[in-house]
Amino acid sequence: MRLIDSGELLWNQDVGPLSIGGREERNQRSLPQPLYASPQPCDYQGMKTVAVIGASADRTKFGNKAVRAYQQQGYQVFPVNPKATELEGLPVFPNISAVPIRPNLVSIYLPPALLLKVLPEIAIKGCDELWLNPGAESPEVLAEAERLGLNVVQACSIVGVGLSPSQL
Q1: Backbone angle region of 9, left / alpha / beta, with phi > 0 → left and psi within -120 to 50 → alpha
Q2: Average pLDDT, stretch 48-55?
Q3: Residue 93: what are its φ and ψ, rounded to 5°?
């Protein structure tokens, strides 16, 4: 599904308008809620599990702020970092394969060169949405994610859950 945000109207290329002026609408076919509708935060259609790849113990880094943002919003969070064992009271997993469940969301805080190496592992594990936070995207990453069939969202996942990174 490809979403097009034209300001007041959010379109799904396959079925038409999903949101008008930030107010979510449903058509007769009971379409799911849109992924996001500016300026409203995303509700992820009830998804409540997330793997944060590039999670950090440094509370000033976005990889840590994302863990805290998801925790505050009631998500079951699986931090992923090969160099850590615990952060924000959670066990840390060395890679996405070690996460004990298939997460609904995967939020990325890695540079593109590292992400390219991890994308096949993410595709094998599976997820409903792959969030590429600012700095994680590149033309090569986008092409590979599409080739692997991953549903990519290019946006700040902290803002996506309705928080501001400056609040964390």
Answers
A1: beta
A2: 97
A3: -100, 140
From CA 47, how far away is CA 129, in angstroms rounded? 10
Q: Does 121 lie in the same domain as 66?
A: yes
> Residue 163: what residue type?
L
Q: What is the pLDDT of residue 62?
A: 97
Domains held by the chain: number: 2
Evaluate if residue 157 carries a pLDDT over 60: yes
Same-domain pairing of 14 and 30: yes
Spell out the alpha helix ranges (H) of the chain: 62-72, 112-125, 139-147, 157-160
Q: Would you state the structure tokens that stand for residue 17, as one six-digit string?
A: 């308008």
CATH of the domain at 126: 3.40.50.720
Kind and range of the H or E run holding 50:
strand 49-53
